[in-house]
Write a structure and sequence with these properties.
638 residues, alpha+beta, Elongation Factor Tu (Ef-tu), domain 3, eight-stranded antiparallel β-sheet, six-stranded mixed β-sheet, globular, Transl_B-barrel_sf, GTP-binding, protein biosynthesis, mitochondrion
């Protein structure tokens, strides 16, 4: 008979109903180590780089080296768990993993945050570095310094983070580490002997990089004896546990069952879930200052990115982290394909917006499309990924209208005009534009664009920027083959197809990044579309005077193709301030009223044609041009 005294029952650690893949013995030893870990042996760091420089591959090697996953192709892109990430091959969401590593016979806890590289997801990087003391600045040894490399280096400097410059893909035949080191020296003043060389694909140099993280990056500066204080860097929704938060602890300790409160509303809650992400959840009972942990307060616990979680005893609490407000670059209308799906789409957008704090959602309505939402994004790729995740993760189909950028207008006599309390108004939807007679001046958003291009394409790049109404800033040489240009560009000219055109004219060698430059006065006008003299509000747009005639002709020609023929002739006009800038005529259906005549006097034929013409004229004066909903969808969507 089996002796039950020799059997040890060990509970399994699960993450969202999935069994943890790590060995049970290693989990138990890890929990013991965590409770004994010294704050001086905690390292919080991010991997930052230009898109496609190998961040996710390097993260995989770090996970393998610390024993989280086993080597193999089946474990590629472990941190890119979203389907949209894997399909596009880019990181769109910052992901955290807490790693254990022993160095000089001492255990260390390394909190890794893998960040996106595309400019449309820069908000993820900004939030991630608030929980870090250092970054790995990853640069492709083949491509060299790119536009986003400049942006993330500047972000790390502003946050006083330790930078570990690292060259990746040194195993490729075209790699030129000496050249890229010279670029880092020229652009960032980084000494070549401080630059590490790795091959994330083959694992070369990754162990040395891991040790450099321990030796170069300092431990978190915390106050362990103070009240508990943490700030939220990410949130997501769980079907059974409600809102889960990723928190960086600034001071004190956090225990399971401990009462806490939100700084925003001061409501008190109880910690019901506490775990480390490895990247799968590993339940713990206590967390100390300096750690990045997952916290859950139950289905009604709430939580939002940027908020602070405090101990109930904390009264005068200073801000835990300074994260700049998100500046949305593109706005688009999202409407359900059928109004019966409005409730489902509303819930899906709320849950997805909780996980993507860079979007703004406001209620919108359209006479043609019904009830919907006006959503702000950081760029067109951000918009595409958001709608793709809506469909893949929540099975919610949506109609997306043409994206537009926000404008600012200055109003005269704002206090006496209804609904306006200030003299400057941000307009995200052309339908909300005040009356033209009350507008003193229009302001257009501009950005500072940074372009790094080979010298042989300088002429084509300069021509493109000038055609897009750009103003040049001083340029600088990266090395003998590459030049960094800067232009002040209108946002409306950048967000649509600027990046694709730039890649096309430079054979894919140029890189582009931009940052906000604020609103500036610009000659803008409101362009209306009239059908037989009747204003169609849905087709109103704001255009620059230099693009007015081109946009007017393009839109009227498209409407002529899209609008179905009517029983009466339809005049499609693009009008600005009562002046017609473009017109197209949609011919009416015509019945041959003389077909029944087989002879006789010509006056009979003329009489029938006159009766038909009079009838058409009367119909035009009273007819209501009906545009099917599908036509609006085809015209408005991208």
């Amino acid at each position: 008979m089996m002796n039950l005294r020799n059997i040890h029952f060990i509970p399994l650690i699960t993450r969202r109903n999935q069994i943890h893949k790590c060995s049970i013995c290693r989990l138990n030893s890890t929990e013991t180590t965590l409770q004994q870990i010294d704050v001086k042996r905690i390292r919080n760091f991010s991997i930052v780089a230009h898109v496609d420089h190998g961040k996710s591959t390097l993260a995989d090697r770090l996970l393998e080296l610390t024993g989280v996953i086993k080597p193999g192709n089946e474990n590629a892109q472990v941190l890119d768990q979203l389907q949209a990430k894997r399909e596009r091959g880019i990181t769109v969401k910052a992901v955290t993993a807490s790693l254990n590593y022993t160095y000089n016979n001492e255990p260390y806890l390394l909190n890794l945050i893998d960040t996106p590289g595309h400019v449309d997801f820069s908000n993820e990087v900004v939030r991630s570095v608030t929980a870090c003391q250092g970054v790995i600045l990853l640069v492709d040894a083949n491509e060299g310094v790119q536009a986003q490399t400049v942006a993330v280096h500047s972000l790390a400097k502003r946050n006083n983070l330790v930078i570990i410059p690292t060259l990746n893909k040194v195993d490729l035949p075209r790699a030129d580490p000496a050249k890229v080191k010279a670029q880092l020296k020229s652009v960032f003043h980084i000494e070549p002997d401080t630059v590490l060389k790795v091959s994330a694909k083959k694992g070369w140099g990754v162990k040395e990089l891991l040790e450099a993280i321990i030796t170069r990056i300092p431990p978190p500066n915390i106050q362990s004896n103070d009240y508990f204080r943490a700030h939220i860097i990410d949130t997501w929704h769980d079907k059974y546990r409600g809102v889960l938060c990723l928190a960086y602890i600034h001071s004190g300790t956090l225990k399971l069952g401990q009462p806490v409160k939100w700084k925003s509303d001061m409501k008190q809650h109880t910690v019901k879930f506490l775990a480390l992400l490895r990247p799968n959840e590993e339940n713990i009972t206590e967390a100390v200052a300096g750690q990045v942990v997952m916290v859950g307060l139950g289905p009604k616990g709430g939580g939002s990115v940027g908020d602070s979680l405090l101990s109930p005893e904390a009264t005068n609490c200073k801000d835990t982290a300074s994260v700049p407000a998100v500046r949305h670059m593109v706005y688009a209308g999202i409407f359900p394909a059928d109004q019966s799906q409005h409730t489902q789409l509303s819930d899906s957008i709320k849950k997805l917006a909780l996980n993507d704090s860079a979007v703004s959602v406001s209620v919108d309505s359209s006479p043609a499309l019904g009830q919907g939402w006006r959503v702000g994004f950081l760029g067109l790729l951000h918009l595409d990924v958001f709608t793709q995740r809506l469909l893949q993760e929540y099975k919610a189909e949506a109609i997306l209208t043409a994206p537009s950028v926000p404008y600012k207008v200055k109003i005269k006599g704002a206090k006496v005009i209804k609904h306006y309390k200030t003299d400057e108004v941000i307009v995200t939807n052309p339908l909300q534009l005040p009356d033209v007679n009350n507008i003193v001046e229009y302001y257009e958003p501009f950005v500072i664009g940074t372009i790094i291009t080979p010298v042989e394409y300088l002429g084509a790049v300069n021509t493109l920027c000038i055609d897009r109404r750009g103003s040049p800033l001083p340029s600088s040489a990266v090395d003998e083959q590459m030049t960094m240009l800067q232009y002040i560009l209108p946002l409306s000219e950048v967000v649509m197809d600027f990046h694709d055109t730039l890649k096309s004219i430079t054979s894919g060698f140029a890189s582009f990044d931009y940052q906000d430059y604020g609103f500036h006065a610009s000659p803008l006008v409101r362009m209306d579309i009239l059908l037989n003299g009747v204003l169609v509000d849905e087709l109103t747009s704001i255009v620059h005077t230099s693009r007015l005639e081109y946009n007017a002709r393009k839109l009227t020609a498209r409407l002529k193709e899209m609008i179905p023929r009517q029983m009466v002739q339809v005049a499609i006009q693009a009008v600005v301030g009562g002046k017609v800038f473009a017109r197209e005529t949609l011919k009416a259906y015509r019945k041959d009223v003389t077909a029944k005549l087989y002879g006789g006097d010509v006056t009979r034929r003329k009489k029938l044609l006159k009766q038909q013409a009079d009838g058409k004229k009367k119909m035009r004066s009273v007819a209501n041009i009906k545009i099917p909903r599908n036509t609006f969808i085809d015209v408005l969507k991208r």
